[in-house]
Each structure stands twice: as structure tokens, then as C-alpha cells.
UniProtKB/TrEMBL annotation:
Name of the featured protein: Oxidoreductase
Matches recorded under Pfam families: Aldo_ket_red
Gene3D superfamilies named among the record's database cross-references: NADP-dependent oxidoreductase domain
Provenance organism: Streptomyces spororaveus
Source organism, top-level taxon: Bacteria
NCBIfam families from the UniProt entry: PRK10376.1
Signal peptide limits: none
DNA damage among keywords: no
């Protein structure tokens, strides 16, 4: 498929509260380094390349960028790169960040933030991005414990005007119900893709039924997770890709978008060609037959 003229609105738009975004967005986790994210010996990404990818993304119509203060390598920070590349920010740009996890300046992981520490993490993002408020903040958690206190702390920051909208990440349906009883939730960001968490299908649908965006991560990387795409792929995915003159990564993105109008893509890359391909995937329409072939792969 050709990627020349496709822009990030090809798959339509979705409203995160009062903020309208194109369904093809961009994830910033791959920008600070080449290779595996969070590796202690990570090789910093070429600064010019990272900035070029961000600017090209916006040129292609990307107006939803996912980031975090803990996305950094020894010499690069995703938030700093975003600010350098894009400030003063376009009016329609929605930057979504996440809090909860934290890393020491040396890169070591810290304990997840307590409710009291979440404010500092929000402020850290504000300082790094050079903004007075954050568009969307996801509470990123591990485990199944209650999120009421932590989400409540973020709801207070929302009331104070530091945060416009809230989301939650790495969560269960029970967490979503708990959060919604405290404050509106505009998005759920969880790991999901072809063959990744088929048991999550019902939750993905349920988010749509509640008017909440579902934003999958690792939808290309799959089981490669933070190490990235492995290069191995199911023959069925390859075959569908060949039929469209597309790549398996594009088929993976198109498949997630086909799960419902509320599903947003945030593919991560530091490669300018992959960026163009990922945006172009918004125009890739899978037939009913292709979707059923991929459904079988998804369910193993
Ligand atoms: N909430 C959470 O817990 C959480 C966790 C992880 C990630 N995230 C967010 O979700 C975003 C998406 O995850 P991700 O960055 O792992 O993205 P992904 O889209 O699943 O996969 C990225 C991997 O695929 C490669 N890739 C990207 N586009 C490609 C293409 N067109 N063809 C071939 N390979 C391609 C990338 O390498 P190249 O750089 O070589 O393209 C990288 O190895 C992250 O950037 C981050 O913002 C959130």
C-alpha cells in the first residue's frame, strides 16, 4: 500500500473528553534510545532523528502523543524531545502522559508512587513539557489492589486545573468501575494486539460501550514487549499483509483499529519510514474474511 498521502485522520477521530484526536497517534517510548526501552546500557537515539520523527508525525496529522517522564535513556528524555521538537505546541495537539511508575536519575526503577507522590510526578511532567496543565494523565498501575486513593489524588489535581482529563493503565474492569465512581475516565491504556490477551476482548468492547477510548500498547511489539518487535510473524498475518502490499506491522495496527471506533493506536518508533507506514495503516481496511482469519490467530 502507498503511504504517500495518508494522514493520521484516515481511520477517523475520537473525543477524549472535549479533546478530539485522530485515531492514529504516536507513542514516545522508543524515542530516547535505539533497541530495548529502559535498558541500562541503552544507546541514545540520534537527537536529530528523534526530533525529525516527532515533527513529521505532526505534519502527517498525528495529534495524540503518548509519553511519560520515565521514558528516558542516559542522554535522552522523551518529554524533552517532544518539547524541543514541537513547542510552541499546535493548538490541537493532545499529549497524554502517565504517572505511577518512577525511575531514579540513574535509570533504576523506584517503588510506584503513593497518592502523596503523584502530584510531584504530574508537576515533573508539566516542567519537562513546559505546560501549565496536562491534557490527559493515565494512572499506570501494577497488580489488582484498589486504585481509589491514587485515582482520588489525581482527581484532586484535575479539580485544581493541573490535569484536564484522566485515564488508567494496566487495569482490570474492576479498576475502571472503581475509578469511574470517583471521576470521569476518558481512556484505558492496556497491552493488547493480535494474539496478545485475547481474554481482554470483552473489556475492550466494554470500554467502547461506556464511551471510553481503549488505547492498546505493544500492538506491534506483541510478546517482544519493551524489547520491541521480534521480526517473527504468523504466516496468516504475513499473507494478509501481502494481499494489501502492506507490512505485518500495518496489519497489526489495522486489526486493532477494526476492534471498534473507540480504539486508538499509539505505535512507537524512532524510524521515519516506520512512522509513515504506521500512519498509512489507518487507511488499511481488512475484509470480513481477513478479520476472521486474524481472529483465529488472535485466539491461538
Ligand atoms: N501504559 C503502559 O504501561 C505502556 C507500556 C508500554 C508502552 N506504552 C506506550 O505505548 C506505545 C506503544 O508501544 P510500543 O512503542 O512498544 O509500540 P509498538 O507499536 O507495539 O511496537 C514498537 C516496536 O515495533 C517496531 N515498529 C514500529 N513500527 C513499525 C513498523 N511500521 N514496521 C516494523 N516495526 C515497527 C519498533 O521498532 P522501530 O523503532 O525500529 O520502528 C518497536 O520495536 C509506547 O511508545 C508508549 O507510549 C505504554
Amino acid at each position: 500500500m502507498t503511504s504517500q498521502t495518508t494522514t493520521a485522520d484516515a481511520a477517523g477521530t475520537w473525543d477524549l473528553g472535549d479533546l478530539r484526536v485522530n485515531r492514529i497517534g504516536f507513542g514516545a517510548m522508543r524515542l530516547p534510545q535505539t533497541g530495548e526501552a529502559f535498558a541500562q546500557d541503552a544507546v541514545p537515539r540520534d537527537r536529530g532523528q528523534a526530533i525529525g520523527v516527532l515533527r513529521r508525525a505532526v505534519e502527517l496529522g498525528v495529534n495524540h502523543i503518548d509519553t511519560a517522564a520515565f521514558y528516558f535513556s542516559p542522554l535522552r528524555s522523551a518529554n524533552e524531545l517532544i518539547r524541543t521538537a514541537l513547542a510552541p505546541y499546535p493548538e490541537d495537539l493532545v499529549i497524554t502522559t502517565k504517572v505511577g511508575p518512577g525511575r531514579a536519575p540513574s535509570g533504576e526503577w523506584l517503588e510506584h508512587a503513593t497518592p502523596e507522590l503523584l502530584r510531584g510526578q504530574v508537576e515533573e511532567n508539566l516542567r519537562q513539557l513546559g505546560r501549565d496543565h496536562l491534557d490527559v494523565v493515565n494512572l499506570r498501575i501494577v497488580g489488582t489492589a484498589s486504585i481509589a486513593e491514587r485515582f482520588g489524588a489525581l482527581a484532586e489535581l484535575r479539580d485544581a486545573g493541573l490535569v484536564r482529563h484522566l485515564g488508567i493503565s494496566n487495569v482490570t474492569p474492576e479498576h475502571l468501575a472503581e475509578a469511574r465512581a470517583i471521576a470521569p475516565v476518558v481512556c484505558v491504556q492496556n497491552m493488547y494486539g493480535i494474539g496478545v490477551r485475547p481474554e481482554h476482548d470483552g473489556f475492550v468492547r466494554a470500554c467502547g460501550e461506556q464511551g471510553i477510548a481503549f488505547v492498546p500498547f505493544y500492538s506491534i511489539a506483541g510478546t517482544g514487549r519493551q524489547a520491541g518487535a521480534s521480526g517473527t510473524e504468523h504466516e496468516e498475518v504475513r499473507a494478509v499483509a501481502r494481499a494489501h502490499g502492506a507490512s505485518p506491522a500495518q496489519v497489526r495496527l489495522a486489526w486493532t483499529l477494526a476492534r471498534g471506533p473507540h480504539v486508538l493506536a499509539i505505535p512507537g518508533t524512532g524510524d521515519p519510514d516506520h512512522l509513515e507506514a504506521n500512519v498509512a495503516a489507518g487507511a488499511l481496511h481488512l475484509s470480513a474474511e481477513e478479520r476472521s482469519v486474524l481472529e483465529a490467530v488472535h485466539h491461538g
